[in-house]
Each structure stands twice: as structure tokens, then as C-alpha cells.
Write a structure and sequence with these properties.
single chain; L-arginine/glycine Amidinotransferase, Chain A; three-stranded mixed beta sheet; binds citrulline; 15 strands; alpha/beta
């Protein structure tokens, strides 16, 4: 089984082997935006997405690409459709109405890679941008998109497959990982309200200054950290912590409040 092979690989090397991405649609110009940075340019978004794919490939990942979905302007933010653990795929249920339905095609695809596929049910909502994996524990932000019912379902599913979960109160950001990124080795990049949360006090925190807030969303991929360009203080801190950094321009996705984690499902 593909799942068993992946399980063994990941357990042995603690590495990701695959990433699912979804090509940005032309309708990206109508995506949900609160960032006040303007409207994304489609051609530039496509090029930046291709650069992102190449950065993941350079970290050793095999890329699985889902074609663009014009009916869903935000669908390139594929992270929000599902939570992938070492064992299961758990299909999310969007809090944002305009995004409900993005998960349908992803579910079909994930059935090919995971034997066990579960789903969050109404009235629960969970967007996995609100979920941060730290080993076998999953922190779940209670945001405008993820409600208590959804988080409880998610924790119960995680416990059934041998992991654990806990909720995090939050009020300042769109998603939990808008302001937090786990870089393995107990190192946590954090900004804003997350710097003051007792549940994160025992991590080695890399603190992101408020004027570099978007840099709090970066991704650890097999030892390399991919980080957004334009935030030199944060990048210097991540390098000083011992990580090689690949900087990427993702300006068009930042216009829709999206970051690097949002653009792929890594497993
Ligand atoms: C949204 O508002 O849903 C999109 N414009 C951005 C989603 C970003 N996803 C993420 O943080 N995981």
C-alpha cells in the first residue's frame, strides 16, 4: 500500500515525501481578501506558484498537482481542505462559505494515498490553516473559521488514530498558522498574541516583529525553511537558529491573506 510505504518512510526519516498543490485559477482576483494589499495578478500568481513548486521539489518532494478550479477563487490554498497525519486523511469543513466544495476533488485524490479518510461534519467547521502539527500533537486554533464543534471532532478523530490535540484561543489573525510555524527541534516561529500564550512557553521561540508579521508563516520541509521574501530580520533569526532558508516571493498570495503553508498539503 502507498500508505504503508509512506508511513515507514516518514517514521524512519521524519521527512515529507509528497506535496499536493492546486494551480491558481483566473478567478483568484475574486478571492477573499482582508490584507488591503490590492488585487492579485493572475500571471504573476501562476509564476510564483511554479517557483513554490520548484522550491518543494528542491527539498525532495514529489508534487501532485490538482488542476485549477475556476468556481473556487481561493482554491490554490489547498492546505485548508484536509489534515494529513502519518496515518489518516481528515477532510475539513470550511468556515468560509465561498470555499465549501473545494474539498470534494481533494477527497477523491486522497483516497488514492490514504486507506483511511475521515470527514468533519456539520455543525463543525475546521480549516487546517488553524492546525499546527508538533510531532503527534496537533494545536487547533479557535478562529473565525474553526469552531469548537469542529475542533472537538478533530481531536476525537486524532485520538482514535493515536495522536492528541488541544485548542488554542486566538483573536488577532485569520488562521493559527498565520502567526505560528513549527520548525521541528522544538523551535517555533511566532508573532503577536502567540508570543504570550502559556502553551507555547516551552518552545524555543523565534519572535517575529510586528512589522514582519507575514514572515511568521514559513514552512519546514525536510530540514530547509522556505520563508517569504521581504522580512530580513526574521530570516536572519531563522538562519541564526541553524536552518538553511529558501526565500520566495509570494506577494500575490499575501494579497489574499495567504502564506507558504496554505499553498500545499505535505505528507
Ligand atoms: C481565505 O480567506 O480563506 C483565503 N483568502 C486565504 C486562505 C489562507 N489559508 C491559510 O492560511 N491556511
Amino acid at each position: 500500500m502507498i500508505e504503508e510505504t509512506l508511513d515507514k518512510d516518514c517514521a524512519k526519516r521524519k521527512m515529507f515525501t509528497h506535496a499536493i498543490v492546486r494551480t491558481p485559477p483566473k478567478s483568484i482576483i475574486a478571492g477573499i481578501a482582508n490584507a488591503n494589499l490590492g488585487v492579485p495578478d493572475y500571471e504573476t500568481a501562476l509564476q510564483q506558484h511554479q517557483n513554490y513548486v520548484e522550491a518543494l521539489q528542491a527539498c525532495g518532494l514529489t508534487i501532485i498537482t490538482i488542476p485549477a478550479a475556476e468556481d473556487f477563487p481561493d482554491s490554490c490554498f489547498v492546505e485548508d481542505t484536509a489534515l494529513l497525519t502519518k496515518r489518516w486523511a481528515i477532510i475539513a469543513r470550511f468556515g468560509a462559505r465561498s470555499r465549501q466544495g473545494e474539498e470534494v476533488e481533494v477527497r477523491e485524490l486522497l483516497r488514492r494515498y490514504f486507506n483511511h479518510v475521515e470527514s468533519i461534519e456539520a455543525p463543525g467547521t475546521v480549516e487546517p490553516g488553524d492546525i499546527m502539527m508538533v510531532g503527534d500533537h496537533f494545536y487547533i486554533g479557535l478562529s473565525q473559521r474553526t469552531n469548537n464543534a469542529g475542533a472537538r471532532q478533530m481531536i476525537s478523530l486524532l485520538e482514535k488514530q493515536g495522536s492528541s490535540g488541544s485548542t488554542v484561543e486566538m483573536s488577532e489573525m485569520l488562521h493559527l498558522k498565520s502567526g505560528l510555524s513549527y520548525l521541528e527541534n522544538n523551535v517555533l516561529v511566532a508573532c503577536g498574541e502567540f508570543l504570550r500564550k502559556p502553551e507555547f512557553a516551552n518552545f524555543n521561540l523565534i519572535s517575529v516583529d510586528p512589522d514582519e508579521a507575514p514572515a511568521a508563516n514559513c514552512i519546514w520541509v525536510n530540514g530547509t525553511v522556505i520563508a517569504p521574501i521581504g522580512f530580513p530580520k526574521t530570516i536572519a533569526k531563522i538562519k541564526a537558529a541553524g536552518y538553511p532558508v529558501t526565500p520566495l516571493n509570494i506577494s500575490e498570495f499575501q494579497k489574499l491573506d495567504g502564506g507558504l503553508s496554505c499553498l500545499s498539503l505535505r505528507f
